[in-house]
From TrEMBL:
Protein name, per record: PH domain-containing protein
GO BP: endosome organization; receptor recycling; retrograde transport, endosome to Golgi
Ranges of Basic and acidic residues composition bias in the record: 183-192
Keyword Chaperone part of the UniProt annotation: no
UniProt xrefs under SUPFAM superfamilies: PH domain-like (SSF50729)
Length: 231
């Protein structure tokens, strides 16, 4: 297939401020000559320009990276080649100064073709479609959980007066429970105890405890006043 290239536009593109994918010094030779020549290479998209010197405005040549293969060679250390398998295709031999540089150049050149970019875009589109389908399937399985009912406040317990007596044989409710009032017979009148009687009952207990405490205290004083040794 014959392809016409506008050399003027190509030179302008080579020296323009468009983004550079990779650049650097490489040793290069063709199929005829066996000696390598150092060239400054600039990769922009699928176009590999090479110059005599870094900063030149016009390239010595350009390699269009379509329909080619990038392969290792055994001629020199850190060398590889760009081969075109079509009829009349050429082979370019390139050499770097390190293993890392060679691998980086080979990877950049292999990913520069339009066919590779189209394949990558197609694969990314497939991954996007799968992710969207998976997200839609997960959204369909999500069930809306109804809001939980607010907890009900338990009823307050009925206050219980311990001095309200229940006749023997009648069931007694637990003190402070809300069922206390319900368990008492409604026809049974409650006996109210005057405060004076309550005060007297508790006061007697307090006076008895106080008298007992004073007796113990006076006995301890008598014991401490006696000599430890009696002669």
């Amino acid at each position: 297939m014959t392809m016409k290239i506008n050399e003027k536009n190509l030179c302008a593109f080579a020296s323009s401020a468009t983004p550079v994918d990779r650049d650097g010094w490489l040793d290069m030779r063709g199929e005829v000559g066996k000696s390598y020549q150092k060239r400054w290479f600039v990769l922009k998209g699928n176009l590999l320009f090479y110059f005599d010197k870094k900063g030149d405005k016009e390239p010595v040549g350009v390699i269009i990276l379509e329909g080619c293969t990038i392969e290792l060679t055994e001629e020199e250390a850190y060398s590889f080649k760009i081969s075109f398998q079509c009829e009349g295709g050429r082979t370019y031999y390139l050499c770097t100064n390190s293993q890392a540089s060679m691998e980086a150049w080979m990877k950049a050149l292999a990913c520069a073709s339009y066919d590779y970019m189209k394949l990558m875009v197609s694969d990314l589109q497939r991954q996007l479609d799968e992710a969207q389908a998976e997200a839609a399937a997960e959204a369909a399985l999500v069930t809306i959980t109804p809001p939980e009912e607010e907890p009900k406040v338990p009823p307050r317990g009925q206050r219980y007066n311990p001095f309200n007596r229940v006749p023997d044989g009648e069931p007694k409710a637990v003190q402070g429970s809300r069922h206390h009032k319900e368990n008492l017979r409604p026809d049974m009148p409650r006996k109210r105890v005057p405060f004076r009687d309550i005060h007297t009952a508790y006061g007697r207990k307090i006076l008895a405890d106080r008298s007992e405490w004073r007796a113990k205290l006076s006995k301890q004083k008598e014991d401490t006043s006696k000599p430890l040794i009696q002669l």
